[in-house]
C-alpha cells in the first residue's frame, strides 16, 4: 500500500498531484487528497455549508446555467472541518473559504469570483472547457 505525502496547492489554484501517482492509486487519508480527487474527477465542485445564503447563490447560478455540480456540504461531511482548513489555504486574504468553487480541477474562488466571471462573460467558456456545458 502506498502512503501519500501531503499534497501542495499550486499558485494557479490547482492542487498538485503526488509523486506522479494517479488519484486511483493514492489512499485518501488527508483532506488535501480528498479535495484534490474531488476537483480532479468532476467538472465542477462546490464546497458549501447547508445554511449559507452565499452558497445557495453559487449553487443556483450554476444550476441556472445548466450545470450539475458535485456539492459537498461541509457541515454534513465527516471531514468537513479538515476540508474547510484546506480551503482556507486556497483563499486570498479576506476571502471566505465557503462557498469554494472548483472548475476543471482548478480552484476558481468563492461566490464573488464566480459572479464576476459570470458578469464579465468568462464563466460559460470555463464551464465548456471543463466539460460541464455542451452548448
UniProtKB/TrEMBL annotation:
Superkingdom in the source lineage: Eukaryota
UniProt cross-references to Gene3D superfamilies, sorted A to Z: Glutaredoxin
Cellular-component GO terms for this entry: cytoplasm
Domain (Glutaredoxin): residue spans on this chain: 44-107
Pfam families attached to this UniProt entry: Glutaredoxin
Record keywords, A-Z: Cytoplasm, Redox-active center
Record localization: Cytoplasm
UniProt xrefs under SUPFAM superfamilies: Thioredoxin-like
CDD domains: GRX_GRXh_1_2_like
Family, similarity comment: Belongs to the glutaredoxin family. CC-type subfamily.
NCBIfam families recorded: GlrX-like_plant (TIGR02189)
Protein's UniProt name: Glutaredoxin domain-containing protein
The organism's taxonomic lineage, starting at the top: Eukaryota, Viridiplantae, Streptophyta, Embryophyta, Tracheophyta
Amino acid at each position: 500500500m502506498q502512503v501519500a505525502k501531503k499534497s501542495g496547492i499550486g499558485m494557479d489554484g490547482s492542487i498538485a498531484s503526488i509523486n506522479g501517482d494517479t488519484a486511483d492509486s493514492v489512499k485518501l487519508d488527508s483532506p488535501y487528497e480528498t479535495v484534490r480527487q474531488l476537483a480532479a474527477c468532476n467538472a465542477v465542485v462546490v464546497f458549501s455549508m447547508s445554511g449559507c445564503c452565499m452558497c445557495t447563490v453559487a449553487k443556483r447560478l450554476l444550476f441556472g446555467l445548466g450545470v450539475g455540480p458535485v456539492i459537498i456540504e461541509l457541515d454534513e461531511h465527516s471531514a468537513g472541518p479538515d476540508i474547510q482548513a484546506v480551503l482556507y489555504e486556497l483563499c486570498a486574504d479576506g476571502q471566505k473559504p465557503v462557498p469554494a468553487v472548483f472548475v476543471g480541477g482548478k480552484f476558481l474562488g468563492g461566490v464573488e469570483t464566480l459572479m464576476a466571471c459570470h458578469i464579465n462573460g468568462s464563466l460559460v467558456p470555463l464551464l465548456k472547457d471543463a466539460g460541464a456545458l455542451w452548448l
